[in-house]
Structures are given as structure tokens and as C-alpha cells.
Amino acid sequence: MRPRLLSLIRRTSSTIRQDVDAELQFHIDARTDALVRDGLTRDEARSRALREFGDLEDARAYIRRVDTAIEQQRRRRDSMSELRQDIAYGFRTLRRAPTFTLTAILTIALGVGANTAIFSVVHGIVFKPLPFPQPEQLVKVWSANPTAGSMQVTVSAVDLDDWRAQRTQLADIGGWWYADGGSGIDFTGSGDPQRLSVAFISPGFFPTLGVQPALGRLPREDEMIRGGNDRVAVLSHGFWQSRFGSQRNIVDSTITLGGAPYRILGVMKPEMRFPSDRVELWIPFSTIPDNATPRIRPVRIMDVMARLKPGATLAQARQDLNAITQRLAATYQENTNWGAATVMPLADAITGDVRRGLVALLAAVGFVLLMACVNVASLLLARSTIREREVALRLSLGATPGRIVRQMLTESVLLSLIGGAVGVAGATFGSRALVTMASGQLPRTSEVQLDGTVLLFAVIASLVTGVLFGLAPALRARGTDLQASLREAGRGLVSRSGQRLRTGLVVSEVALAVVLIVGAGLMTRSFIQLLGVDLGFRPDKLLAVNFTINTSRHTGQAHRLVYREMIDRVRTVPGLVAVGAVKHAPFRGNGERISFVPDGLTLGGGDQAPTAPLFHISDGYFATIGARMIEGREYTVQDGAMSSPTPGAPPVFSGTPSLIVNQALAEEHFPGTSAVGKTLRLGQTRIPIIGVVNNIRQTSVEEPVQPAMYINNMMNSRVGVTLVARTRGEPLAMANAVRGAIWSVDREQTITSISTFDQFVGEAVARPRLLTILLGLFGTLGLVLGAVGLYGVLSYLVSSRQREIGVRIALGAPRGAVLGMVVRRGLLMTAAGTAVGLVVAFALTRYLRDVLFGVEPTDPMTYALVVVSMLAVAGIASAIPARRAATVDPAIAFRSE
Amino acid sequence: MNRDAMELLQGTLDVLILRTLAWQPMHGYAVSRWIRERTEGTIEIEDAPLYKALHRLERAGCVSAEWGVSENNRRARYYRLTATGRRRLREEESAWRRYAAAVFRVLEPA
């Protein structure tokens, strides 16, 4: 058999039938003829031939089936070998045009890579289910105070116990208290004392999540209640590895935490990183002593989640919890206005406030990919004109138009897959860089990885890209007019339809770029606004040392003396300008929310007193952080005076309690008058206000400052301390000296963290900064891609119309006019694209509203800037080809090809 | 037709066809005649299974088929042994020989 690459003749079912019939007929006829030659009559011969043959019809049907199968097999083989041919041909073509190929691959790599990186982050954080069994049953629960309009408040440990006891629609409910750098415990007895990061958990915590330990067991119910045997701990896998070298016999051993013996019950699996990857221990909430966090209803500090009973709905859970909270509100006076609960899926609660920003990023990066597509499509189009002769030749040699389209598409998909592969390689770095940049600012970053789903996304993105940018040029190739092409190709005539298509591409590209730049511009403006916010303090050169005074060693009132002495010792350190302390530094905690009754406010029967966070501060705190007293004064050392009631007895606080309030509280409750000298009733005590401090941003930079109260830590003592020192030089350079001063008071004192206020502020704006950087990056990319696209099309236009331009110049057209013609053309396309882009941006950017600060999504200034910069860039992109046009040698018009 | 003819042993037909086509490419009718002549009517062969076998062998890639012109100037489908077919023939032939030798060793008196 002759070797054949392709079987040109396709056998249809009717030709198969005819062939089978003919073959069998030939046999019968031949046999009949032979028998006739042997002397039989024709009839006899024929019937004998048929008899010898056997079941003719059965054979006919069988053979048809087999032949059909053979044909199908052949077609499959043919299309495979066609594909192989197309791919080989594609590779050859791409290799012959290395500049084009490289440009296209890089453009696609950029688009696909950026998309893959962003998608990997969004997928890990937003789309991937939580790593717990039946994660859809998990909900987050908050206490709600509808009267105060506070619908998402953390929960009191006492309330939580009641919720758990009375629940009907929930399989279980559990809570935790965890604050990054705030919730911890001292670990002593093996080497240097160390501050461990702890999640303090309620009895329902582990059962609600449905997790099991890798080693040992989880605490029993009776090990998680006050007065029970609750000094137990469960280790995180990472802590177990790093601190105990993965020893399995650690289970049931005893370690010293906060000066007391705790039994290690078990070790969790590596994937258990809830509520944070930084958790090293899970310890019963019941172990927290009352002088750290009083276990009473008004102290609402626990995060709570619940697991729905199988089949129970969110609405049923809501109903259940509302009924319980209403009962509690009716029973306990301190819960009067707290007769409601807010319930939402846990996944939404975790990712809720980052979702908008991430989705905006995904949209922006999608636009970048679209622009990459448009750019490559326009490159391909320019090439397809060059290739028209090749296409025409193949058509004339008998290739079908369908075959040509397939060949072209194979080529573009080949390009996009190579580009995609390069892009994915880049995305692995990009994804890691993003996670590093977002460190601590995004939830669930440990789940961000380039897994199967992300790779699938990349492959699909590449394939869709390939088809998208390959389709237009491929379809155009199909429409190639044989005769016209063979005649005209290479003579530099631009077909009208090709020109229109390219113009359309540029216009849409400019439009996409405009949308991207508007997004980037809005975000940048918003970020600048954010940085310009008056924080109420000067964060530069402020060192913050966070620690917790140990009450098991400094019993009774002794911890107040330790506090006093530590501040005094640090004040003697040379190089410090001022020293103070606060329990919760700005952006490091929300204080303790309590209710108060100001002078002149009489509460009716159902009225609830207003609430505000109370911050525990030292004397000189405001001066240290650079806050300003609006009126009155701040605490002095004398305000916290301690003396011994009887000679020899331990000293106790002996001064008069007083309060400082912020401007927001003063304006809300004492409008138009001086707040100093007025009193606030906290609980049963009336406490005078001695000063009003300016508003200090405490929870976030964006949100307006709420009323707040400050109390001297000597009057109402807390063991959690952030010691703040204003330094003359670089703050962190003073860290050792300050720590030394603290250790000179108590060598056993553990330090939770040492940082600067600049870092706190930086972290508080890190999320918008990340979004700004990325949107800015995509905006720049958009601008560059748009400019490159415009430049490409105009250069193509100039080079393909050289002869025409030459004629014009020969006929006396001034070179300036030629230059103007090209630039005008570029700007016209840009103007059209910009107009379209502005409309789209106007429609889309309102989805950015939630992540913008101090800027309207329709900010006219941003839009104006975008238009100006787009036109400027377009002008430059047009000028280069225009200059080339103006320098065309008129002789070209007369040169033959 | 010989009344005493034996039934064709299962699987024998394929090897007979391959052997036949090993001489030269031929159409189905010629294959049929050739086998009948060589077996001298000892084995009863119908043409229906023969054609089925030819197409089956084509599907297996053992033979290829092409239209040609017969001795009496008619369009006939010619079958040709492929490399695969040749290999298959060698394998089956030696299998048959071993099989027959074994049977004979039993049948022949010691």
C-alpha cells in the first residue's frame, strides 16, 4: 500500500453500502459464470452460488458494520494527524516570525499570569470551602443591640453559656477569644519565658468545628468550666513541632503557663489553623481570671460560631437565637436592649469585608487579559494581511476554508498555551508575593496555592484567550478572496474590512484601558485621602512594647506597683522624649465597652444607657503619643497615688477616680458647654471628667471616631500593657534599652511584641494600600497595552500606506499635514475609545464604592485626569509612526515592486 | 459439495485467509476458490464467514483493501497482506504447527 498521510476520499454510509453490495455481487456473478462454464444452466448456477455462499444478508449487514467502524477509525486517525500537522505547521510559522511570536507570548503570559495569580488568591480566600466538615452548616453569630444600632457585637461568655443550653436549631455553638498579639499566656519553666499566642475557647468550640486532634484528645465538657479541672491545653501542630520537636509523649505531660500547671491533652492536625494561623495553644476560656476579663454579661468579647442541625436553615437558626436572646433580655436587666442576634454564614463572615476588593481586583485583572487578547488579535490581523497570499495559495491547492480556519486557530491556541505556561510560571511567584504583601491583612492566606483548580483556571483562561484573539483573524482568512489576494497581496493595499476591524480593536482596547485607569485613579485618590486623615496622634518615632503583667507572681495589688515602677524605670532610659502606657494602642484593640450615664440624662423605663469603649491609660499617655487636650488636663503621676492604709500594710490606690473623654463624647453629651467638671455615672459611681482629648482613630482610619472614655490604669487596673515611648531617633533602636528597663523590675516578664506606631498605622491601611498598588499596577498595564495597541495599528497603517503617502508628498502635500493626518487618526480612535470607556467606567465603578474612602466613584477630577493622560499617551503613541510617515521618500511612489 | 466435509475449526479461517493472501493480493472470490482447491473439499467452507473474516482482518489492520480490475474486467475489491498481517500469519502458523504436532504425538502409536 502506498503510504498516505491523509485519505482524501471520505467514505460515507451510502458509499460503504454500495461498495459492500458491489463486492458481494462480484463474488456471486463470478461463481455463477464459473459454474455456467462447467455446464450448468444460468439459473442452476446462480442458486448453487448463493447456496455455497451461505447467509448473504447476514454477511452484508455484518460487513457494513465492520466497514463503518473502519471508516470511523480512519477519520479519527486523520483528524489526529491533521492536528499534528497543524501544530507542526504552527510551530514552523511561529518560529519564522520570532518578534511577533515573542511579543504575543509575553503579552499573553502577562495577561494569563496576572489573572492566575489574582485568581489563586481569590480562590483560596473567597471561593474555597472552609477546611471543616460540612462547612456550609457553620454560621457566625453576634449579639445585637438594635436600639443602639449595633448589630454585630462580640458575645458575652455568660450569654454564650445560656445560648448553648437553650438552643434548639443548632447542632452546637462555641466561641473563642483571640486577639492577634493580644491574647496570650506566659510559658515558663523551659528556657527563657515566652509569650504564647492563645485562643481561649468555650466548651462548644471544637464540637462546632467538627475537628479531631492528630494526637491525644480534646477537652471534656467538665474540663472547660470554672472550678472544673480546666487547666488543660491543646497544642497547634506548628507549635508542637517547633517547641516540642514533635515528641508524641508530650500528651498528658504538664507545662507551666501563667505560673500555673496545665495538662497537655492533645495536638491538633496541621490544617487546623482556626481562628488564626498564629494560634499556638487552645485553652479553656474559663481559665481567664476576673481581674483580666470579668465574667459578666456586659463584657462581650467572644467571637461565636454555631453549626446548624442537619436540614436546619439560616432563618431557623436566627429565629432560635432571637428567641433565646429575647428571653435573656427579659430576665437580666443588663441585657435589656440586647434581645437580638445576627447570624450569617461563617465563610461570608470571614471573607466578607475583603470580598468586594478581591472581586474588584479579579474584574480589573480580567480586563487586562481582555486587553492582552485584543493586542494579540490586532497583531495577528496585521500578520494575516501579510499571510493572505499564503492562505490564497493553500486555498487554490485545495484546502477547504474550514481547514484554514482550523489551522489559524490551532496556531493561536498554540500561542496562548505557550503564553499561558509562561504566565503560570510567573504566577507562582506573583501569588507568593501577593500573600507576603498581604501578610496579616487577608484571612485564610495559608490556603492560597496554585492547586488543580487554579491550574484548570489558567488552562481555560489560556484556551479561551487563544480562541478569542484567534477567531477574528481566522474568520477573516476564510473570507480571503482568492483572485484579489493573489493579485494584490504584498502590494500594500489595505482592505477596507481589515481596516475597520483593526480600528474597532483599538477603540475597544482604549475603552478597556480607560476603565482600568479610572479604577486605579479612584483607588489612588482614595488612598491619598486615607493617608491624609488626621489620626489624632503623631505616629512617627513611637515605640510600642506590649506585655501582660503576671498576676500569679504579683498577687493582690502588687501588679499596680509593678506597672508604676516599670513606667518610672523606662522614663529614666536616655534617648526617650516621653513615656506612657495604654492597654489597647490605636489599631490594636477596641477598649472595654461599658455603659455610662452623663449628667443631665435621665433614663426612662425601657431606655438603655449609652455605651462607649473605656481605655486604660497611664499618666502622660496623651503627651507621649502627641494627642492634644481640647480642655482640662491629662493624668499626672499624682492622680494614681497609692498609700498604705496602715503602716506596713501593702499600699492601695488612694486618690479620687476621674475620667478623660474624647471630643466626640463631649460634643455628643455636653454640646455647647464645657465637659470638664461634669460627671459620668459608671455603674453606681459618679466620676468627674477632668479633661477632653482630641479624637483618636482607634479602630480604623476610615471610620469616624466614636465617643470614647479614658481612665487612669492606677484607678482601675488592667494587667495588659502597651508601653509607649517617643524616641529621639529610630524607635526600634531603643527596643533593647526599654526592654532592659522592664526586666530590671521583673526579670521574668515576657514581652508579647515590640513594634512601632508607624507599623500599626501601616497595617491599618495595608489592605487599601494593597488594593491601590494592584489596581495601580493593572491601570498602568492597561495604559501600556493600550498605547502599544494604538502604536501597532498606526505603524501598520503607515507602512501599508507608504505608497499613498509618497504620492501625496510628491504631489506637494506638506509633511506637517501628513504628520497631522496620522496623529489625528490616532487621537480620533482614542477619543472614541475613551468615550466608550468613560461610560463603562461610570457604570462599573459604583461597585468600588465600598472600598473607596473620601472619593465618590464618579469623582470628576479622576475622570478628567484619566482623559488627559489617555490622550497624552495616545498622542505619543501616534507621534512615532506619524514621524515615519512624514519622512516617507516620495520616490517610493514611482518605485516598482 | 462433499457431504463428509468436516466443520471448520474455530479460528482456522483467519489463518487460511492470511496464508492465501501471502502469495499475492487477490479478491474475495479468488481467496474462496484458492482455499477450496487447496483443501480439496475436506473442509466445508461457506463464503459468508469468509467475507466477514476478510473485513474483520481489514479492521484489525492485517489486510488492506483497494478496488481494482478483475481478470474479466470487472471492478473487484482486492485484499493485500499488510506488515501486521504478515506478523500475525507467522504467529498463528507456528501456533498451529505446535498444536498439530502435539495432537499427532498423541495419535501416533508410540
At the first level of CATH, the class of chain B is Mainly Alpha
Query: What's the N-to-C terminus distance of chain B?
Result: 37 Å
Q: State the major sheet of chain B.
A: 3 strands, antiparallel
Instruction: Using the CA coordinates, give the radius of gyration of chain B.
Output: 15 Å
- What is the topology, as strand order, of the major beta sheet of chain B? 1-3-2
Strand content of chain B: 5-15%
* Terminal Cα span of chain A: 47 Å
Q: Kindly report the greatest chain-chain contact and the residue count on each side.
A: A-B, 25 and 26 residues
Q: How many E-type strands of chain B?
A: 3
Q: Return the structural class of chain B.
A: alpha+beta
CATH architecture call of chain B? Orthogonal Bundle
CATH topology of chain B: Arc Repressor Mutant, subunit A
